Amino acid sequence: MAQLGRSLQLRIQVGSYDAMCRMVEAGVGIGVLPEMAARRHARSTRIRIVQLLDEWATRELRICVRSQSELPVFARELIEFILQSD
């Protein structure tokens, strides 16, 4: 949204995906949530899933650690595997 010179105006914030989907089901608004969560909730609510394909919808994920050298070997190996898979 920043690239469009606009900011997202949040009017309602909820504490869970379940609450978001119930809000959407009630016609109160729209929700943006991970696909797997949307699919799971679509089985028990009357919501419609619309996939976002625009470039702005792509998320960049980060791995955060306090000290990578202090991590157990398996955790360091996992980070290396994830970074190589990119």
Q: How would you describe what is shown here?
A:
The chain has 86 residues and is mainly α. It has three helices and no strands. The chain has helices at residues 17-25, 35-42, 73-85. It is elongated. The two termini are 25 Å apart. The mean pLDDT is 88.
Write a brief structural summary.
35% of the residues lie in helices and 0% in strands. The protein has 3 helices and no strands.
Keywords:
86 residues; mainly alpha
Element layout with pairings:
Blueprint: H1 17-25, H2 35-42, H3 73-85
Overall geometry: elongated
Strand content: under 5%
| Arithmetic mean of pLDDT | 88
Termini separation = 25 Å
